[in-house]
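Field reference: "sequence" (input) and "structure" (output). Example, histidine kinase:
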Amino acid sequence: MEIDFSHYNILVVEDSELNRYVLREILERESFHVFPASGASAAFEFLQKERVDLILMDVMMGVTNGYELTQQLKAMDEYKHIPVIFITNLRSPEDIVRGFDSGGVDYIPKPFNRKELLQRVKHQIRILASNETIAKQTEELKAAIKNRDSMYAILAHDLRSPISSLKMIFNILAVKAEEENNGYSAMVNTGNDIAEQLFSVLDNLLKWTKSSLGILSFIPQQIDFKDMILGVVETLQPSANLKNINLDLDLQQGLEIFFDVDIMKSILRNLLINAVKFSHEDSVVKLTLHQDGDWAIVEVIDSGIGMSAPAQEQLHKQIFRHDAVTAMGEKGTGMGLWVVSHFIHAHQGEFFFESEENVGSRFGFKVKLSAGDLSV
């Protein structure tokens, strides 16, 4: 990596006028900008006026020695990032260790060896240049990711409305086809299932990207939990019918929660779609709602293909990363369940699951009941 040393300022803190002159001559021949200071007060005066990239610090000075001055600089937020190289004729291991302990990054013995001096100075400048490059690339990557997420959010938002309309059309056609018994019922239900899955993917993508960008709005309101669940089940019934899966509901009445309606629908839809997707034909998916103290608990239980222990461990790593928005693995695996886990926890709830390979799975969550239901 080619470095233009003329872009870097070096402050030389040295009480010997001769040493300041020698250091300045050596470094300026390599195109560095060099600024001399005879002691602590001159050093601070210059630091307040100019940007400094590297400090060459004499150890044995007047009132304040180099170790003490370096410790003062490292204690100040505006200067603690500046690397300090000590220039000293103290060469005992104790003195060298003391220099590193006070915040120095290297040392140069006196009398100066020109090649060694330049090698050590240039090494620190290369580290600075590398860090600057990394910081710049990091900012560019963050901007690219933000732009990508913005594009995802726009696409998902623009596609969500027509897919939602398509779902409604298929629902109407499904009812008509069944009433007229014209042989198109299975085909219409298949189209409805495809539209439902597309809508779910776009809905998850929209929530993921908006959450990533910090622009997702939460609008909680009072919800009759049983009525909401019945509404979601009705929209997913055609998908269950395709595999002749019976949706067995055991829903306690009278439970209300204070939650964002759109997000709760997404949570329920994701759990039911997963259960139907991984269930065998002619089987049962059970959905329960009941109260446990201050909590409303929802469980979706299937007797489908289940998950192996390694698959469960991988899923757990993907969906329980609350330090990061992006919890998807390869090919977007787990985005729907990440939506469930992320937003249940965002509403101070709890998400859980258990599974056994070739036996089935149980996914569920608990959320706080509204105050009016706590005495039930």
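The chain has two domains: 5-112, 217-373.
The chain has ten helices and twelve strands.
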